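Data availability (excerpt). The following record was deposited with the supplementary files.
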Amino acid sequence: MSILQLPHARPDVILIDWHATLVNTHDAMYHAVDDVLPKLRELGLYDQLLPPEHSKTVEDAKLVKYVRKHAQLHPKISSERKISRTDIFEVLFGDNQNAKARAHKAFDESYRKYVGEVHSLEPDTREQLQRLRKLGVILGVISNRNREFMEHELHMVDGEGWGHLFDTMVCGTDVARRKPAPDLLLEALQRLGRPVDESCWYVGDSTTDIVAAKTAGITAIFYNGVGWDQHWIDKIFPGTSRHPHRPDAVIPSMAELVELARRMLAQDKRVHRYRDHEPAREGNAG
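Predicted structure:
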């Protein structure tokens, strides 16, 4: 069944993934991944690679097989740049938390060499974030990235910085477990003093983002900025017993996120207005 749903609740809080949702840091990210993969044996991670037959999709199994054989990403994956570092490690190591933690640590050590310019993924991202704030929505930015790198990137993006646009920022090094564990999202809500429910939306571009949101118990919005077709979206979110998590909505742009939030907020106001003016039902009168 295609994912054509709408969120169940208005957004009081919107948490947003950083890389490949708000900004483009592909060059640095892929350079760091390229550094890590040839070192898998040295890091004691080669034997921790997921058996291909345990992969979620045929494509995932091919990725694992290629990395096992060549100790690098397939050139097509590197050139297309549609998969995040976190998703790469999820495909390679599955539920092995220890292996993923070690891979992320090696990534961080390498990423430091490549941190450079950061640009908004869409030309009007800054404007759309400002529109969300004008709607009265609390905003937070979430990243598996090391806080050292996130603070640097947040304050240099587009040469102006976006720090003032967010009410909180939570990074991979702030919590015990990175995404797809829900720790980052739960920590953000705790810092904001907000409840853990569907009135918090989390927007991200990867399957790990959706898993994190659904595991946390909040609304999951899939940002399809790279333009996956519907068949592929249904494939990566199969809704099976083994992979049950599916997004509550899919958006192609930040402008669409603003429109969706505006629509849901307006709908909520209409419902409350109707309830406030609903005449007393017969039989309830004194």
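Summary of structural features: The chain has two domains: 13-24+118-275, 26-111.
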